Inverse folding.
């Protein structure tokens, strides 16, 4: 079994991690493990849910796939330290290095992205650019083995795109049908280009808090 | 704060619960709590993730919203017992009673759905009908205060639809933009009507195991 390590930490956004997990955990021959600086429960950004890290960074130094979700806890992971060291070590040998939402800011701060093309939550694209990446306002961005998704729910689309690369389109389609991913959002406003300007400004102001 | 209780149990499908959680936990004035028959970690259907139940059923007998996710562990919750008793008690006073995926089978088995219109994962609609519900192959079904979603990822759409009812369309749109829910699935095959026949049969055969 090849390893997919999803990094979790306190104040992550749950769906950033659980969206791709739900897709990638269904891939034959691959095993998803939630890893943390320490084992045990990590609380999400709302404080209302705990997810368990089953392994430490040291337990999985060289997963074939490393995936970094975002969330408000990202801000505490922008300084060099054990997580950055682990990400740099994992990047040396990974087949794919992935992020969802502001997880790309952590990858960039760790020196893993360099000048490659990447995306992030739409409110974080400027910061991603300041960190040296070529920031792209796209839902899923592939640049070599670096794969990044836009905000929160985009990790599902990234997971399916990656599943297609790893196991072929038939397997990816079966997973998509298995999780009945035939989205019918009630509003056509899930991106800043489509949402009404006053809603964009309200969300942007809130994100700055 | 009004209470949203999300029931979790061993072998649930994580995204069934985390999709609506990610939406509803952002609603002003509402508080999401993950509840279980016992407190502590519940392992998901893949065995690869633990979610924490912070409260027991007895801690939250009358939440304003009760939400039941699905997953292979649903089969162990079809007999009468503490979960069914709790669901019947919660239904007496709830403002909304909700399910995602095969969570509707648990609600139906507990006697909560009766003959109302409801949906479930597409592979479970026949069983839902046998349990007395008017099973509908739709993504989100409202019947009075009963709200049900189709398989796994449909809980996100349900959460946003419910957010619109609870807090108005502006708040729901802001949440949708906050989680950047502008889905771009790589395949147009997330429902059995749209997917190729051989993929539908492969997924159906797997679901029967």
């Amino acid at each position: 079994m090849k390893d997919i390590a999803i990094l979790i930490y306190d104040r992550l956004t749950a769906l950033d991690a659980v969206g791709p997990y739900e897709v990638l955990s269904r891939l034959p021959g691959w095993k998803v493990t939630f890893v943390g600086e320490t084992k045990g429960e990590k609380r999400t950004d709302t404080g209302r849910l705990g997810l368990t890290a089953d392994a430490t960074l040291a337990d999985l130094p060289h997963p074939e796939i490393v995936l970094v979700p975002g969330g408000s806890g990202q801000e505490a992971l922008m300084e060099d330290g054990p997580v950055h060291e682990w990400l740099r070590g994992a990047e040396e040998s990974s087949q794919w290095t992935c992020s969802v939402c502001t997880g790309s800011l952590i990858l960039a701060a760790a020196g893993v992205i360099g000048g490659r093309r990447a995306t992030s939550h739409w409110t974080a694209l400027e910061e991603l650019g300041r960190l040296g990446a070529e920031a792209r306002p796209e839902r899923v961005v592939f640049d070599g083995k670096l794969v990044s998704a836009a905000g929160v729910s985009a990790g599902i689309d990234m997971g399916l795109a990656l599943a297609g690369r790893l196991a072929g389109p038939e397997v990816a389609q079966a997973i998509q049908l298995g999780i009945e991913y035939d989205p019918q959002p009630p509003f056509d406003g899930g991106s800043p280009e489509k949402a009404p300007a006053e809603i964009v400004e309200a969300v942007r102001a809130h994100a700055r808090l």
In short: The first helix of chain B runs from residue 14 to 24. Chain B touches chain A through 66 residues (CB under 8 Å). Helices of chain B lie at 14-24, 82-93, 103-109, 125-130, 154-167, 169-178, 197-208. Chain B has seven helices and eleven strands.
